[in-house]
Q: What sequence folds into this?
């Protein structure tokens, strides 16, 4: 049995050594207890307590101002603006401002709470014995009583300046997160309802980059086109073609079942959006005999001889058709934009 297992009252008061018996005056294993409580200057002098109160209130106020600055920076600073910060170098001015102001707002709330606890709240240490997890009614009553004592000793009700500035700081900080929701993406407005196609724009072959004539498209062939003036080296080329991509198929006019499709075609050349109406994948598979096109992503199948209606797969609606005709030079030109928004379900288009 070790000396730690021996009850304190059974510990020896004398210890035998080679030179005889030595009196043991102090128990080396005795509980030293808590040190004597030392009062802080704020506990004694009300002027010092007021000074601490003003410091805490100042930190909470700085937090509120930093939150307001966060929102103002988000609105006022351009996303492309950059600044030089030593030793980091050139960084985004918006990111720097948002990080700095949000960091100050959160830091000041934490620093204010810590200073409040260390200078104004009670710092008397209380020793409590461990108890079972399940609380007895008496224990619950004691907890509620201790909570009330703690609330009173924290001077939360008395220090109204601290209380009001704390509420202000905590109320404003969540606004930073609300503002960040705006950065999930630009508001689509009506951008997804329209494409680059306009009346009079020529249909340009994607492979040859040359304007298309009806004679360039053989019966049963599939040709991809883009609007006149859209070039691959343009910065927004992918964004433009994500909505304006076009596929042309030539069908014998007598095989076209849909009346509007026939009216919007030219000598059997029909033009439909290349963007699948399921999740926006590009359609590229064409079956000559049935005039069906297949989306390779989820196998949605459209009948180009019958208004590009869906005959199989998860797509929700037909492919939008582009009304085409020819100009004085015999080139295929658009007669306007697509009649319906291009791409997936309506709620994703804005």
A:
């Amino acid at each position: 049995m070790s000396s730690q297992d021996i009850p304190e009252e059974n510990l020896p008061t004398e210890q035998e050594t080679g030179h005889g018996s030595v009196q043991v005056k102090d128990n080396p294993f005795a509980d030293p207890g808590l040190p004597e409580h030392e009062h802080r200057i704020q506990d004694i002098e009300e002027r010092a307590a007021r000074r601490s109160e003003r410091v805490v209130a100042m930190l909470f106020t700085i937090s509120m101002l930093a939150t307001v600055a966060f929102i103002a920076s988000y609105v006022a600073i351009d996303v492309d603006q950059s600044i030089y910060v030593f030793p980091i170098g050139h960084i985004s001015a918006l990111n720097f401002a948002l990080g700095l102001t949000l960091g100050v707002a959160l830091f000041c709330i934490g620093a204010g709470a810590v200073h409040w606890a260390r200078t104004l709240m009670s710092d008397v240490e209380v020793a409590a014995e461990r108890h079972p997890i399940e609380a007895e009614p008496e224990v619950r009553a004691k907890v509620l009583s201790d909570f009330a004592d703690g609330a009173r000793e924290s001077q939360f009700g008395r220090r109204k300046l601290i209380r009001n500035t704390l509420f202000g700081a905590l109320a404003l900080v969540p606004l930073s997160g609300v503002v960040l929701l705006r950065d999930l993406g630009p508001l689509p407005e009506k951008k997804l309802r329209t494409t680059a196609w306009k009346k009079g724009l020529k249909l340009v072959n994607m492979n040859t980059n040359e304007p298309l004539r009806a004679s360039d498209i053989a019966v049963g062939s599939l040709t991809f086109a883009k609007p006149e003036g859209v070039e691959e080296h343009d910065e927004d080329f992918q964004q433009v073609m994500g909505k304006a991509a076009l596929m042309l198929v030539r069908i014998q006019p007598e095989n076209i079942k849909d009346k509007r499709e026939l009216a919007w075609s030219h000598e059997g050349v029909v033009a439909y959006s290349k963007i699948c109406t399921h999740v926006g994948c590009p359609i590229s598979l064409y079956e000559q005999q049935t005039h069906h096109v297949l989306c390779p992503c989820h196998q949605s199948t459209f009948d180009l001889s019958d208004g590009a209606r869906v005959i199989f797969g998860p797509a929700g609606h037909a492919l939008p058709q582009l009304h085409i005709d020819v100009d004085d030079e015999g080139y295929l030109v658009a007669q306007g934009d697509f009649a319906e928004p291009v791409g997936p379900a309506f709620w994703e288009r804005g």
